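Q: How would the structure tokens look for this protein?
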Amino acid sequence: MKTTKLICFTAIVLYMMVLTGCQSPRDTWQLVWEENFDKDGVIDETVWSKIPRGTSDWNNYMSNYDSLYDVKDGNLILTGMVNPDTVSDAVPYITGGIYTKDKKGFENGKIEICAKLGNAQGAWPAFWLLPFDNEQWPYGGEIDIMERLNSDTIAYQTVHSHYTYNLKMGDNPKQGGIGTIKKDNYNIYSVELYTDSIVFGINGNHTFTYPRIKTDKEGQFPFDRPFYLLLDMQLEGSWVGKANPKDLPVSMYIDWVRFYQKPEKDK
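A: Here is the predicted structure in token form.
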């Protein structure tokens, strides 16, 4: 009886730790950089820049509108909303996103991001990586640490390259996987960057691995290079579909971003 009670109590404590925030699993990795968003109202411009608008599904509503960005209570808050001024900016919605482009790169290590995603029809939040040298897409590769659609209880983790996109080799090896998330709570999304593989996880659970393989086809593994990180709250697109204005605004809360590397003896 005492053993049963102890097990139940331990399970409850672990569950409450997840509900109230994110605890990173301990392993052989050493923390070398972290962003805790601990200065209210301040985004560190030595590391981050606001993502400008573009012509792709993911960035065609990006805006520097102040209400889309906030740092409060140890969270970066990125929002998507109905555009309040379609006269001077003729788009129906505006969204916020930041990236480390031309400022900070990541390679040979593990990135973890602790975040709570908002729920809305047409919401498409994402954490992902693009090559720091800005090689043309898809030749330089793309690593999607997390993409989530609408109010789903799953998140997608994927790689893209010349090999997977132009040559249509998405199944040899498999280019993506999914994992379950707690849609109303914080989750930890992770990617491990190696010279011979990319390893993905959610809440400490392995989702899938994309390996370097021997092939006569070009561009199978362009991922052994520095990448910059993007964090963005997106709305609409050919994949996620149309947004419902009644569900907006929608925000995601990013508690922290951490980058780890292994000691030389463990590499």
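The longest helix spans residues 2-20.

Residues 22 and 76 are 14 Å apart (CA to CA).

Upvote if useful.
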